[in-house]
Amino acid sequence: RVTTYERCTTYQETESQIERRISKVDIVAPLPKPIEGTTDVSIKKRYIPSHFPLLNSELLNEEPAAHRSRRRISSAQWKRQGRRHQQSEHLQINARQREVRAEYFKCIFNFL
Hints:
The chain is an all-alpha fold. It has helices at residues 11-23, 41-46, 57-60, 75-92, 95-111. One of its GO terms (molecular function) is guanyl-nucleotide exchange factor activity.
């Protein structure tokens, strides 16, 4: 629960609590900043400071472009990499750390 939580029993109390919270703003959004580092001139022309740009429905409905240069890694390869990483971590820790880790995992699996 939030530290500012106050239980209300009636509608009028709830309404007064809401009005009190509205009168005390607890967060202020930062002012929007200009787009920097953008090379696309058309985006800069369409950008109006302090206004959210209109979304282009045609672009949103398109499928993402497939990058042929990227090679897809199968899930089996990810699993092998994960096992290798775990093994290298295991070799780097000392005996006491291994015991603590084993006890930790026992507690977790017994809890589940």
